[in-house]
Each structure stands twice: as C-alpha cells, then as structure tokens.
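Allow me, if you will, to draw on your knowledge of protein folds for a short while. I have a record of one protein: its chain in single-letter code and its fold written as discrete structure tokens. I remain grateful for any guidance, and I place the record below:
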Amino acid sequence: MDRLILFRHGKAEPDSDSGDDFDRRLAPRGVEESAEMGAHLASLGFSPDLVLVSPAARTRETWASMQGAFPSAQSRVEEHLYHADSVTIRRSAQTAREGRGIVMVVGHNPGLQELTIKLLQEGGAPQTLIARAQRNFPPAAAAVFLFDDNGRPHYDGLFFPGRHH
C-alpha cells in the first residue's frame, strides 16, 4: 500500500425507519458532500485501487455517491468495519494492501479519527495539524497518508467538506 485514504461517511439522517443505527441513510447533504469530496480527491490523483466499505447503509451510500470519481477502483464490503476501532481499521487496510497502490477505507468515527491522529503522530506531523484532527473529523472528511518502504506513514492531506486543505 503506497497510500491510505481514511474517509468518514457523509452526513447521515439522525434516525432510520427501522430505528437501527446500522440502517441510517445519508442525508441529501451527505450525498452531495461525499460526491464532491470524491471528485476533489480524484482531481488530486488520490484514486484508490481498492475501497473497503463498512456494511452500514450510510457507508455504502457514501461509496455509491463518490464511486463515479473512481471508475477503476475495486470495492468490497467488510463486515468488521462497522464501528471498528482504529486497530481493526488499520489491520484491515494492511491486510488488503498486498499489491494495491492506494487503499481507501469508508467507515465511521471514532475509529477513523483515532487512526488519523495516530498516523499523524507516527509520521511526525506538526502538533497544530494533530490538534486540528483531534478537534474535528466531520462527515465526508478524508485523511490521506503516504507510506514509505518501512511502512512509516507520512501526512499527505486532510480534507474537510467545503474546505480543502
């Protein structure tokens, strides 16, 4: 894996028809922001070869919203990514990375935010950037990391909907 993209699902509806968190769907804003962020990442050359998607309705809809920006990406739903912790997310990405240039994980907080902070710390990112990620990792946010030959992460971008950094 040359790069890892951590992508938090888009803004979701507060409730589902079933009352189950797993079934919550994207709000219209979530569909729009996910598509915009996908297009922005693609314009920067951050196009995944493989996308690992949590099975929840909102994460599957997030991937569907941005899939057009990544026409050559393969994707698969990974049951264990639903509300996964940072260790599980990282392990999933590392396991899937064999022969893959760029892996994207579409999942949930707090796991994605925790992994973003951990990778920033491991890569020696400035404290101001780490603090920013600690304060906020909103829906449709993406964190991108480049990995060197020793597997050490290096910050490659932190992107919030409507504000690209």
Q: What stands out?
A: The chain has one domain: 3-12+23-164. The longest strand covers residues 153-160. The longest helix spans residues 28-43. The CA atoms of residues 128 and 134 lie 10 Å apart.
